[in-house]
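Notebook p. 47: complex prediction with pyridoxal-5'-phosphate.
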Amino acid sequence: MFQASSFIEIDVQKYRTNLHFIRKNFAKNRELCLVIKGNAYGHGARCMAKLAIDEGITTLAVFEPSEAAEIVDLVGDRCRLIVMGGVDQSLQWLIENKVEFYLYSLEDLHNTLKLKNKMNKQKALVHLEIETGMNRFGFEENTFPDLLNLLEDHKDFIQVKGISSHLAGAESISNFVRIKKQIRAFDRSYQTLSARLGQVQRHLACSAAAIRFKKIRLDMVRIGILQYGFWPSQETFIDYVMGRNDQNNPLQRILCWKTRVVAIKEVSIGDYVGYGISYMAEAAKTIALIPVGYASGFARKLSNRGRVLIGNKIAPVAGLVNMNATAIDITDIPGVALGDEVVLIGNQGSQSISVASFSDYSDQMNYELLTRLPAHIPRYLVNEKAPTRQ
Ligand SMILES: *Cc1c(COP(=O)(O)O)cnc(C)c1O
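Predicted complex, structure tokens below:
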């Protein structure tokens, strides 16, 4: 194998800290479903699925069937797996592999029923997604009579595992009225449906909703961003710490994106570095090259303004970020050698480059930046051993 030009480390101890925090605060006496769509928010779906299951997680959720296919072998019977987005061509595969999936229209239900004779006693395990006001996916109330009749007629094939909906922006207080309306609509729909279907698992809350609205944690919470150590928004963090004695952030970032120095150059005053004339050395400079550019998710916007960590110090990007390489000014950091570790996101010594600061420089939000970290970057678990107790 060739050496990867950059790699991502996932800190297992920090992940455990986050899980403990989530369980204690938001998932007490209810099921915790961890959302690992978008390649586990860039952390690596296989890596994170394995880690979650080893930590005793009983439900994982992804968005697309292809994401389920990527991890189904390591999930096996140890954990439920839910597909929360559209299903189309994959229906038969989902049923055969006991993957649970969202149904959100009568057409999808009819398509599922078409497979009934083919499936030879295997059941479709479904979650009904209810339209409550986000106006994205979901059964409208006027479809309930047909929906309930069909479900009753085909009880032997379709097993309803849950009833769910998704809130339109619980991370921002400006959506408060809309969210409240959605919660009421969900309650109403659940009453109607469960009167005929019996009690099934209700789930409505993502991270922001679980933080903000205690009452809607219901039977299961679907937690994505928190497990990776990020708050859904600044507002939700403030909401959480307000009125608490300890106002420290209890979450820990678990991802560290690293590369190495592959070349070092001395440039004279007045020399240009890289393509074009965007960077001219205003004095004699030492430049380190790293083999990471915008093809690896290091945004071109970071040209002349991004920062990385080398030798436990902060070092600025010099010139344009290229497709596969970037120059770093290390003039003020003596002793840097070829092969030295460079941190693009994460900690080194007492310094850190947060995803938030990285995304400020590149105008991306946390969720977006993380999911854009290319899937081809290898992910490794580090710091797996429990610390020895003092
Ligand atoms: C992404 C997603 C979640 C998790 O959202 P976070 O804000 O990351 O906690 C929950 N439910 C659904 C339907 C989602 O698509």
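Notes: The chain has twelve helices and 18 strands. The mean pLDDT is 93.
Next step: compare against the earlier run before touching the bench.
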